[in-house]
Amino acid sequence: MKRLAAFLALSALVATPAGAWGPIGHRITGQIAQDNASGQTRARIEQILGHEELPEASTWPDEQRSNPDPFWQAEAGPWHFVTLPVGDTPDELVHPPEGDAVTALERFTAVLRDPAAPQAERARALRFVVHLVTDLHMPLHAGKPGDRGGNWVNVLWFDVPQNLHWVWDEGMILRQQLSYSEYTARLKARTTPEQVIEWWDADPDTWIGESTALRDRIYPAPGENGEDGSRERPIPLSYQYNYDWTPEMELRLQQAGIRAAAYLDWVFAGEG
Fold first, then answer.
1. Which superfamily does 2-8+20-269 belong to?
2. Where are the domains of the chain?
3. Tell me, what DSSP letter sits at residue 237?
4. CA 257 to CA 33: how far, in whole Å?
5. Residue 154 pairs with which residues in a beta bridge?
6. Number of CB atoms found within 10 A of residue 187's CB
7. What is the mean pLDDT of residues 158-174?
8. What does the mean pLDDT of the chain come to?
9. CA dist., res. 60 & res. 123, Å (int)
């Protein structure tokens, strides 16, 4: 337990405020997508990425955040999330001038479907597509205005200072102490054929609607932050929150992997 607390404390120091599912979460969904995509889609992926597989490709857009190129520093930052007020539906989503995860997904889908696009551009587009499908399944990446997707909701995660966004990105995943391959195997074993059929949906509006519905349930009660309900002090979260919400977090990872496969099958079916 002491080793885990130390690891979480270290993670608190290095976690970035605008991240999406951490590396383990993205690799899990990348592997599930690769395992459920059609043979034609897997062949297209190999044509574009060579020996790089989807678990590796899925984390690339986050790994490039420190790249000094203006594309990463001035352009790509807002493309990992959408903002939707409480009570709004996905068809009411207003896209900002700088774009968001939905407009980025449309942009990179068009590149993937263009056989005349340069190989390097198609590879970048594929990495973004698999990454963005997963991001849109993270409830705090369909954020409500005002708190940067829970980044400004300070918590104590098992006594370690953090924020609510990080708890969903990485905190609950890291509590399992599993590698991405071990976690993938666990989630695949729990996924039934009936669920794959039910979840096979390539429409981002479906994913965003599910994410916002979950988002509106997962915020800790303000009263947990002291008698006056103030959010100036971190809200303590530990075993109960982890118990209550880990199953929902895992469900979103399962669904994200299946939807990434469905989306890529749809993309390559319409290529050219």
1. P1 Nuclease (1.10.575.10)
2. 2-8+20-269
3. E
4. 5
5. 163
6. 19
7. 96
8. 89
9. 11
Q: How many residues does the chain have?
A: 272
CA 53, 49, 129 angle in degrees (round to 5)?
Answer: 80
What values do phi and psi take at 163, rounded to 5? Answer: -135, 165
Which of 198, 176, 200, 150 lies closest to 249 in space, CA to CA?
176
C-beta separation of 120 from 111 below 8 A: no
Q: Tabulate helix, strand, coil % of the chain (nearest 5).
A: 65, 5, 30
R_g over Cα of the chain: 18
Q: Residue written as tokens 């399944």?
A: 137
15 has a pLDDT exceeding 70: no
d(CA 185, CA 264): 21
**Does 8 score more than 90 pLDDT?**
no
The burial of 99, by beta-carbon neighbours within 10 Å (0-12 exposed, 13-18 middle, 19 or more buried), is given as: middle
**What global pTM score does this model have?**
0.89
Instruction: Write out the two tokens for 169.
Output: 């990105």
The dihedral over CA atoms of 88, 94, 99, 105, expressed in degrees to the nearest 10, equals 60
Task: Return the amino acid letter for 219.
Answer: Y
**Any alpha helices (H) in the chain, and if so which ranges?**
2-14, 23-36, 39-49, 54-58, 60-63, 70, 101-112, 119-135, 164-166, 172-175, 180-190, 193-199, 204-215, 239-269
